[in-house]
From TrEMBL:
<dbReference type="Pfam" id="PF08349">
    <property type="entry name" value="DUF1722"/>
</dbReference>
<protein>
    <submittedName>
        <fullName>Uncharacterized protein YbgA (DUF1722 family)</fullName>
    </submittedName>
</protein>
<dbReference type="InterPro" id="IPR013560">
    <property type="entry name" value="DUF1722"/>
</dbReference>
<dbReference type="InterPro" id="IPR007553">
    <property type="entry name" value="2-thiour_desulf"/>
</dbReference>
<feature type="domain" description="DUF1722">
    <location>
        <begin position="193"/>
        <end position="309"/>
    </location>
</feature>
<dbReference type="InterPro" id="IPR017087">
    <property type="entry name" value="UCP037004"/>
</dbReference>
<dbReference type="Pfam" id="PF04463">
    <property type="entry name" value="2-thiour_desulf"/>
</dbReference>
């Protein structure tokens, strides 16, 4: 891993242990605070409290059209939608200055739930088709930022995908702050080619073609298209099948260096990973060993081999 400053990460304040929920409680998530907290600088947000609803407060839920819901208190039936929207517009402008690399939302929240939030129809029946009002506006305002919610972080694959995107976003933001330049973009793309391949061969091809034709495009247009494509690619999960393809691709760089027994060992380990017998970290560790042993300069710069700190143990699940 190349050294970098801490990642600035937006997060629902209750997940940090702030007692801001409607009943004065919190929902501290120890993975967020204790594990991710070593690598990020949190920017806490509580929509209900920040828009003036207080603690404790009456519970509320979403009603009406899933695409344009109303936020209604459950006992007194007070419509607080406009209050939330006015605050959100101002808060989002503030967040544009925070250099966020992503956001973790509180699941099932009528303000912050990212998906499958209960929304009640005209007959009072709940349907898990809603999106929290603040979460919807955040994702619309920052369409390329990685977002996740606390419940989904319990899934090992989703957690790995989110954290990988988070560290990639930080590298991208640092790159852009260093100045937009075609030569620098080619270098950034070279460093991430195999990472994109593991997520989407289709986007990998499109990104390569875009960079190759970069001289024919205005620089701003080139960067906009690149950011859109790379963000789309990384939203797709890196599956066992796609990782296996990349691992064999990596093996090809050692055709001349590896002995027949070393090639056989690596092939057996890759196949064991493909069959679900080993976690991804096993073939990756062996390949990293060969990268150092044989001083392979191209692979040394590939973030696929080290996309996030080993201490996070994100590639240790089979």
């Amino acid at each position: 891993m190349k050294t970098m400053d801490k990642i600035r990460l937006g997060v629902s304040a209750c997940l940090l242990g702030h007692a801001v929920r409607y009943d004065g409680s919190h929902q501290r998530n120890r993975y967020v605070t204790d594990i991710l907290g070593a690598y990020v600088q949190f920017v806490p947000v509580c929509p209900e409290v920040e828009c003036g609803m207080g603690i404790p407060r009456e519970a509320m839920h979403l009603e009406g059209d899933p695409e344009n819901p109303r936020l209604i208190t459950t006992r007194t039936r007070r419509d607080v939608t406009d209050q939330m929207l006015r605050w959100a517009a101002q808060r989002l402008e503030e967040l544009k200055k925070e250099n966020l690399c992503g956001f973790i939302f509180k699941s099932n929240s009528p303000s912050s739930g990212m998906e499958r939030v209960k929304i009640f129809d005209t007959k009072g029946m709940p349907h898990k088709k809603g999106v929290g009002i603040f979460a919807r506006l955040f994702m619309k305002t920052f369409p390329h930022l990685p977002v996740e919610e606390d419940g989904r972080l319990n899934d090992e694959v989703l957690r790995e995908n989110f954290v990988e995107r988070l560290f990639h976003r930080k590298r991208w933001d640092d790159h852009v702050r260093g100045g937009k330049d075609l030569g620098r973009l080619v270098e950034f793309h070279t460093d991430h080619k195999l990472l994109y391949l593991a997520h989407s061969p289709k986007h990998h091809r499109e990104l390569g073609k875009l960079v190759a034709e970069g001289k024919s495009l205005p620089l701003e247009t080139l960067y906009e298209r690149y950011e859109h494509l790379m963000s789309e690619a990384l939203k797709l999960k890196a599956t066992v099948k796609k990782n296996t393809n990349v691992l064999y691709h990596l093996m090809g760089y050692f055709k001349k260096e590896l002995s027949p027994s070393e090639k056989e060992e690596l092939r057996e380990i890759i196949e064991a990973y493909h069959r679900g017998l080993y976690p991804l970290i096993v073939p990756i560790t062996l390949i990293n060993h060969y990268v150092r042993k044989y001083d392979q300069p191209y692979l040394k710069r590939q973030f696929y081999l080290n996309p996030h700190p080993l201490e996070l143990k994100l590639r240790n699940h089979a």
